[in-house]
Design brief:
single chain, about 130 residues, Ribosomal Protein S5, domain 2, alpha+beta, 5-stranded mixed β-sheet, elongated
Length: about 130
Amino acid sequence: MEVTNAIGRRKAAVARIYVSAGKGEIVINDKELTKYFPDATLQFIVKQPLAALGVVGNYDIKVNIYGGGIKGQAEALRLAIARALVKINEENKPTLKAKGFMTRDSRVVERKKPGRPKARKRFQFSKR
């Protein structure tokens, strides 16, 4: 099998991945998955598309990821893995789509407006 690539985004995080047949190694920015995401919840999020299809140990994944926070990076990686699995086999798409892994979560932080302390918050009103 040749190398399949895909990209995933979430908030400010961007994950570029390269998937090839292998024994289940996930390397993120030259670190293994458990070192890059020490939290078990984030590891679970990353492996969700693989677990949904039952192919956890079948692919080696090399990841370049940057931007955003740790949760946004994990969710960007999840989207990238789901997209790559669909590129590999188009029949995977309905299963992944039903679980919500194919949808790009486009919510981002609203910008701060001038003359306000935050995006929507106003300064305290004083009558006198």
